[in-house]
Design goal:
By secondary structure, this protein is an alpha/beta fold. 58% of the residues lie in helices and 11% in strands. The N and C termini lie far apart (78 Å). It binds adenosine-5'-triphosphate. Adenosine-5'-triphosphate binds next to helix 6. It comes from Spongiactinospora rosea.
């Protein structure tokens, strides 16, 4: 192909918003010539690669704006460390049927068992599948909603938590809320009810949520909406944060003995 035509295709690709195709054209041409590729295969290769590059860019952007603290996946989760947790159940949930159904998932258990890890793994899988995610701790969300409410901007701020397909609500129960704060959480949960998924993590049993939200009636109303369509996973095991420390102590005891 003449240099003139290549230059024209590159310019057209840029005008059409296909910058990767423009960049990679020469390299692809050489490969196509070397492999004696047919016209259709060549076009297929160009379009597939443009799509892959776009998808990668979309994913990077979506992960960045999700505010997730990391992007861990189930591949990095050691199920042997939590033998009471059924890996099939967790992997089933990672297929995201509950997200399609606009249902919720709750991960309950003591500190360090990997509740956030698994919540993020679900969210990363969902992000790959094209769902939008927003990650927050309960405490941070309440602070943001309170500040917005104080200046008459509650409705706008609520939208941050209502818009994404999935809201990851981390660390429910770590700090108790007063009744007004609990009420802000209720507003968010009732507006999301059957409209979008919440994946939450909590170190408190549902029976203790009255203390978390500063009011038994309010906690019941929140739980009623949250649990109507909800997958609950309880992880009862040791903290992974202590794994190496416990192993070191055991070695020390064995050596000393
Ligand atoms: N079974 C596991 N396999 C691999 N890594 C794990 C496992 N469990 C936890 N971790 C890791 O241990 C650290 C703590 O886990 P994570 O924050 O998910 O726990 P958590 O249950 O949410 O704790 P907390 O309630 O204190 O926030 C993270 O780095 C996480 O990736």
């Amino acid at each position: 192909m003449s240099e003139l035509v290549t230059t024209r295709i590159r310019a057209t690709a840029i005008k059409l918003g296909l910058p990767h195709l423009a960049d990679a054209l020469s390299a692809h041409l050489s490969r196509a010539v070397a492999a004696q590729m047919g016209y259709l295969d060549f076009l297929d290769l160009l379009l597939e690669e443009e799509l892959a590059v776009r998808e990668e860019r979309r994913l990077r952007h979506a992960l960045r704006i999700s505010k997730m603290p990391h992007h861990k996946t189930l591949d990095g989760y050691d199920f042997f460390y939590q033998p009471e947790l059924d890996p099939r159940r967790v992997r089933d949930l990672a297929t995201l049927a509950f997200v399609e159904a606009k249902a919720n998932a709750a991960l309950l258990g003591p500190p360090g068992v990997g509740k956030t890890h698994i919540a993020v793994a679900f969210a990363v899988a969902a992000c790959r599948a094209g769902f939008t995610i927003y990650f927050t701790t309960l405490d941070d969300m309440v602070r943001q909603l309170k500040a917005a409410n104080a200046i008459g901007r509650l409705a706008g701020k609520l939208r941050t938590y209502l818009r994404p397909h999935i809201l990851v609500l981390d660390e429910v129960g770590y700090l108790p809320l007063d009744r007004d704060e609990g009420n802000l959480v209720f507003q968010m949960i009732s507006k999301r009810y059957e409209k979008g998924s919440i994946i939450l993590t909590s170190n408190k049993a549902f029976s203790e949520w009255g203390q978390v939200f500063g009011d038994e009636v309010l906690a019941t109303a929140i739980l009623d909406r949250l649990l109507h369509h909800c997958e609950v996973i309880a992880i009862n095991g040791p903290s992974y944060r202590l794994k190496n420390r416990l192993a070191a102590v055991e070695t020390h005891v064995a050596v000393a003995g």
